[in-house]
Design a protein that fits this description.
By secondary structure, the chain is an alpha+beta fold. It is built from 16 helices and 10 strands.
Length: 466
């Protein structure tokens, strides 16, 4: 900071563009016979708290004034108070919502953390719903999200490490982990990558951060991160030794490292007894595999009807095929995504009538008109519904892309194309890596029966007395 009060005030006025920004407020007043000015962002400060702090400051007499800001800091009737001499730190704090006070004759600026952000309630997420369990969810404020995890893990071993990224946005990023259980080498790797991020802003929040953390092999569609809007799920992964990344302005947590087997787990698996939880998990895994195989296998059998066993002769297409089956499948793959996008952008009051209209037109009339065969509609309806049995959108689209590739290869090269599509699918999974560098199929590769059984089956909670 500069030597005189006027220089400091003028510099901050220019740097914060007080005259141009209506929401950045500065006010001059007298504290103990000394000139003072404070800065804050309108809408970020708690009015009642600031009124009490101003009453305290303006009530100080000249004889009560300490010699420096550090001594005054000790007298402040508030918990989160700090001092700083760096203009960069002062301006960053003001723009984050901190209340800054500069007093004549003091070399330090007093920073009072009285900020509050507009936030919605911690209600249950629309996507990550459970039949049992807690009904709270993450919001767009990182402090609230870290508190929801801290509420569930009351251990001194839990660490909440604050970082930031983005030259302009300076987005807050929190690394959450258990110090005694986390892989320290992997933790250092993630911390260094975040500190080395050279971008102007994390405009897409977590997606921007994910692309900065993992820059190689962008053409692999399989997700490297798992996202959850449930604090209980995030807390469970922290206790397992994983790292949780919370990004300000994002209502979900990033979990890493994760394998493909971690992607199919859901909170409902743990809110039911072990037998029921294991059944739900295995059912979800089986359905996930079927979403890849069912349409290419059907297309292959239709190309070779003699391969169909007599007991399954009913699966053959009975009606006239006006459009080749491969084109029917590809059109419906695109149509399903179109319906999904339409559902996202449809107002709630119109969702029911539009759903009925879409079902009638695309379902019944498209079959009667000869565009699609009923068998094709049936299998694609199964694929569309089955994609919602697991929580990861990214994993669903990864399987969709490889399913389309297999359909095209099967249509062109028949059985050899079908086998080539399967080989390509599994080769992509086997050669894929997690962010930590481990195999994407861990604990299958490298094999660990204990961890694999925990990934596939729901085990009862261990007794600490055993």
């Amino acid at each position: 900071m500069y030597q005189t009060f006027e220089e400091n005030k003028n510099y901050l006025n220019d740097r914060l563009h007080v005259s141009e920004c209506f929401d950045i407020v500065n006010r001059e007043f007298i504290i103990g016979g000394k000139n003072a000015v404070f800065y804050f962002v309108d809408g970020f400060c708690k009015d009642e708290l600031m009124q009490k702090l101003l009453q305290f400051l303006m009530g100080l007499k000249e004889s009560d004034m300490p010699q420096n800001a550090k001594e005054l800091n000790k007298l402040m009737p508030h918990v989160e108070v700090d001092v700083s001499q760096s203009f960069d730190e002062i301006t960053t704090n003001v723009l984050c919502g901190v209340f800054a006070v500069i007093i004549e004759g003091y070399d330090d600026c007093i920073l009072i953390d009285s900020r509050t952000y507009p936030a919605r309630g911690v209600s249950e997420p629309e996507k990550d719903k459970v039949l049992r369990g807690s009904k709270d969810g993450f919001v767009e404020t990182v402090v609230f999200n870290s508190a929801l995890i801290r509420r569930r893990i009351r251990s001194t071993d839990l660490r909440m490490e604050m970082l930031s990224a983005g030259k302009a946005s300076k987005t807050d990023i929190v690394l959450c982990y258990m110090d005694s259980r986390v892989d320290k080498e992997f933790l250092k790797k993630i911390r260094d990558r975040i500190n080395d991020i050279k971008v102007d802003a994390l405009t897409l929040n977590q997606e921007s951060l994910a692309e900065c953390l993992y820059t190689s092999n962008w053409f692999y569609p399989f997700p490297k991160f798992k996202y959850t809007e449930r604090p209980d799920t995030a807390a469970a992964h922290v206790l397992e030794g994983n790292i949780i990344i919370l990004v300000d302005n994002s209502p979900s947590a990033m979990i890493l490292p994760v394998s493909v087997l971690d992607m199919i787990q859901e909170a409902d698996d743990f809110y039911f007894p072990p037998v029921t939880g294991s059944y739900l998990r295995l059912s979800r895994f089986l359905i996930l595999i079927l979403t890849y195989f069912i349409t290419p296998t059907f297309l292959l059998l239709m190309q070779n009807p003699s391969w169909i066993p007599p007991a399954f002769a009913f699966i053959q297409v009975k009606e006239t095929i006006n459009i080749p089956l491969i084109w029917q499948f590809l059109i419906l793959e695109l149509a399903i995504d179109g319906l999904r996008l339409a559902a996202v952008n449809t107002p709630n009051m119109l969702s029911t009538p539009l759903s009925v209209m879409a079902a009638l037109i695309l379902g019944e009339f498209s079959v009667k008109s000869g565009w699609f065969n009923s068998e094709v509609m049936l299998y694609m309806a199964f694929v569309a519904i089955a994609n919602y049995t697991h929580p990861s959108y990214e994993l669903g689209y990864a399987i969709k892309f490889f399913r389309i590739i297999n359909l095209i290869l099967t249509a062109v090269f028949q059985v050899w194309g079908y086998l080539a599509g399967i080989i390509l699918f599994f080769a992509a999974i086997v050669t894929n890596k997690m962010v930590s560098g481990q195999s994407y199929l861990y604990p299958l590769i490298p094999f660990s029966w204990k961890k694999l059984s925990h990934a596939l089956f729901r085990h009862r909670l261990p007794d600490s007395r055993e």
